[in-house]
Structure prediction request, 540 residues.
Amino acid sequence: MSSSNLLRGTLILTIGVMLSRLLGLIYVFPFEALVGDRGGALYGYGYVPYTIFISIATMGVPLAVSKFVSKYNALGEYRVGRRLFQSGLLLMSFTGFLSFAILYTIAPMIAPLVISDGGNGNTVEDVTTVIRAVSFALLLVPLMSLIRGFFQGHESMGPTAISQVIEQLVRIIFLLGSCYVVLKVLDGSLVTAISLSTFAAFIGALGGLGVLIWYWFKRKEALDELLQKDKGQLQPSLSDMYKELIMYAAPFVFTGLAMPLFQLIDLFTFNRAMASIGLAAVSEKAYAIFNIWVQKLIIIPVTLATSFSLTLIPAITKSYIERNRKLLRKQLNQTFQVMLFLTLPAVAGMALLAEPVYTTFYGYDKLGSEVLRWYAPAAIFFALFSVTSAILQGINKQRFTVIGLTIGLFVKLIFNYYFITKFATIGAVLATTLGYFVSVAFNLWIIKKYAKYRYRLVFRRTLLMGIFTAIMCIVVSVVVALLEIALHYNGGKFDSIVLVFIGALVGAAAYFYMSYRSELLIYLFGDRFAFLRKKKRADP
Prediction:
């Protein structure tokens, strides 16, 4: 494949991933309006165990298979990749069924660890029903992951991108439609609505798998033609192939499990800790706000920042292998700075405008606003963890990602219950932030040690970005205070939308202008903003 076609394929895949993530964020807002905090908590109770199981069942297969197939295709050994694919279909079918059977069976054992009967909220039986409903998706998702990886290994990104978007669309349409029909038309139970909402993962997987099967038959002839060009010099055993595949897959598994594992600790400790300090009546509402609604908001700047900075990882891998220390240092500088440049102002702005931001998406809620204000800074560590984990993979030190994540989870586990008993919902936020901070600090130390990298430039630039962010916040605070007086702001949704829109616009303009005047934009993004340098130097 030519470099232009490869670039086109990468662009298609990136757009598909971004569209899929965007859809995964947008549906939450009407969903919250339909099911409320109790429904959101119940949805979270089911989805967290499912996310853990799906990560284990797929075992990082899409990227690992892609890397494996691409490698042997480059060597002209096309049958090796096809053999892996054919045996992998059986393996993924087996792991999918096994994961489904285990999760479905142990659901009654998980549920009592999550919640106790006796309150006015969800029951153990409700949680069991929802976990079992979502477990059906495990039958299809691993199989779908393998097919996507196979296509990507042949540098065909369209099937993955389109199937991801279709999967999300079908899931969301079924999720929102079933909720509306059950709750608004049939006047049914909330448990039934949430069970169908989680079962939507299976329906979405059917849609995504259907797209992939269609692509398979469409492109099978061309794929079979490649087998005629097979050199036939390499014939590794299945055991050797799977050993190699596991080596590729392991880092992706643990990195992808980071957020679900942190959420799993909250799943098993949050309600009990809240009950121990007399807040059992509001624990489910608090859980939904903290672990479902607010988390969806703070992931937005993380997704945007990491999508830009992670594009540099392949180049980092190449520089490390070639032992080009100077270029590697330059690329690491750029990766960290781009991520921080985008994340810092977004996080600060979200914390500053926490009340109108939360109200804009979910309606006014004092606890929701407070949690968002405290949780927003954690987004910096979420982004840093993703970036540092990718860098460790780039310099072939991915095993340390597992160690760093384990240390962070241990910190979260130690402090979570105690912090919740002292600070209620905010305690869980603080424990998550502390856990991620420790993981990130460990990853940064490993990068410094093995890449011989110094953070002096990044520290200085981060300090500059911090100053710009502080000035931006002052400007936004003044503008928002004036708007609140003019609008007689009292937490209304329309007024909140106005505050968020104008506040974000003013903040972005102020931050961009300061970055432009200091030429920080040019240092970070190079030729993309070269015209600004010429313009500035032409000024008297």
In short: The chain has a mean pLDDT of 84. Residues 1-236 form one domain.
